[in-house]
Amino acid sequence: AFTEPEVSIARYNAKFNSASLTDCAGNEFIFTPEDIHQSAIYGWDFGDGTYSNAKVGSHTYTRSGNFVVSLVLKDVKTNKTLSASTLDVVVNPTPMANFAWEKSNEIIPTVNFINLTEDAQTWAWDIKGMKTSTDNQFEYTFRKKGTYMVELTAENEFGCQTTIQKPIVIENDYNL
User: Fold this and answer.
1) In what order do the strands lie in the sheet with 81-92?
2) Which of 69, 75, 95, 105 shows the smallest number of beta carbons within 10 Å?
3) pTM of the model
């Protein structure tokens, strides 16, 4: 007696995961499928109006919010949906670091640094190689003329940070 051989129908699994389900705007999320199927079309929807057909999804969110990421596996020949899965991600806001500065006196080159950052809780100032501070605002007296790079890093309650650098030009030496 002749029997038909059993045909193995591939089981498609669209389940996927991410190393982090919560991160900061501007950071990359990597979405890794549990199984990679060479005979399937991958369709990622990152929940913010962007899409990809890569086997492993990666996306950088530019704004904060809660997003539903979905993966749909489709048949290469018929475009029929074989499997689908979703995952919720939370994208926290990143503060926009910014500052201004003003000289407090024409003769003494003391500069007041004014923090313009909103929605941050901690700050780290750095006048490269000269002074650091964690104060919200501070002042510094420059003794030598030159151009100095000043950096401000701001961090919010979610641990999201951003950094800005600006040059400060001091036109005269100052010696007591």
Assistant:
1) 22-24, 81-92, 65-75, 40-45, 51-52
2) 105
3) 0.78
